[in-house]
């Protein structure tokens, strides 16, 4: 099958949607399919062989964050050329409502289109206001996928229609087989995310840290991600700042080693999350997880069975839960066991097969319609009516 996948966000700025698309493309390539991914990227950015650049992206505020998107006449021309050259059996667009390549592709494409909706935003005025513009494009979509029940709910409430829920995927064994790193072990709490994006929750964790260190002064907080490190620790008393170690951006391999090494992974995100891929990665690596009780996080953690939850933005509750878990190796071992079993449902062997089934359904439907039209045309040319 010839598969075209559209990524709305800049390929050279890491994020959950980009990682999902990358892993999905590589999963299908391993199965023998031909895959091409169209994504915004600077023209001098090294790209995998299967990625085609649609040109440089620009930063745009989107869903409580700043997304790097691509839109305009040049982008539209690159979309049309990519569609023409690809002659795809199916086109898979991610975030088709964002002002980026997905919407341009919806307008230009012919044939079966599958769309995945990642965003969870129950009060999106922009999406409601843009409905009239989006409607014509959305009507061309053959099948809709939502990565969680909360992304599905956003779609239904704002745009109508429905979607099948297929979660984000993870290569579970990649994380499970990573080697721990000795320097990241030993009473460590881990956080991965953009440091200067408030909704990722690092400020909440920083507010909780003094209370954690008051009980467990030997604990270290390891932070991986880009952002202003000095600003991140400004709220901490000077004598506690040495207990925070910033690792900067880490490779996929080091992320897996990081998650295999820490005693506790904390996800203090405050909102705007439709899934929580980092939770799945942490569980895959065997890290006990403590997360804010966002609806999407609660679903990923099996309502607290596969990881513990604390009230969103409550730094005291976070600190109390973290201390309790760090003091209880038995409970952490229980969470590791439950998380490792629960996470198998998110492995690409399951998720990829479900997405491929959607592709096969829409392409079979398109083929049936084309055959019916061809046959109807033949009967018409013969001057005969079909029963």
Estimate the global geometry from the Cα principal axes.
Answer: elongated
Give me the CATH architecture of the largest domain, please.
3-Layer(aba) Sandwich
Strand order of the largest sheet: 3-2-1-6-7-8-9
Our count of domains comes out at 2
Largest sheet descriptor: 7 strands, parallel
Strand portion: 15-25%
List the secondary-structure elements in sequence, H or E. EHEEEEHEHEHHEHEHEHEHEHEHEHEHHH
Distance between the termini: 34 Å
Gyration radius over CA? 23 Å
InterPro entries: Glyco_trans_4-like_N, Glycosyltransferase_grp1
Domain Glycosyltransferase subfamily 4-like N-terminal: 14-173
Organism: Streptomyces afghaniensis 772
Keywords: Glycosyltransferase, Transferase
Word description of this protein:
With 387 residues, the chain is α/β, with parallel strands linked by helices. It has two domains: 2-169 and 347-378, Glycogen Phosphorylase B (Rossmann fold, 3-Layer(aba) Sandwich); 173-345, 3-Layer(aba) Sandwich (Rossmann fold), CATH 3.40.50. It contains 15 helices and 15 strands. Strands 3-2-1-6-7-8-9 form a seven-stranded parallel sheet, sandwiched between helices. A six-stranded parallel sheet has the order 12-11-10-13-14-15, with helices on both faces. The protein has a two-stranded antiparallel sheet with strand order 4-5. Strand 6, helix 3 and strand 7 form a beta-alpha-beta unit. The radius of gyration is 23 Å and the shape is elongated. The two termini are 34 Å apart.
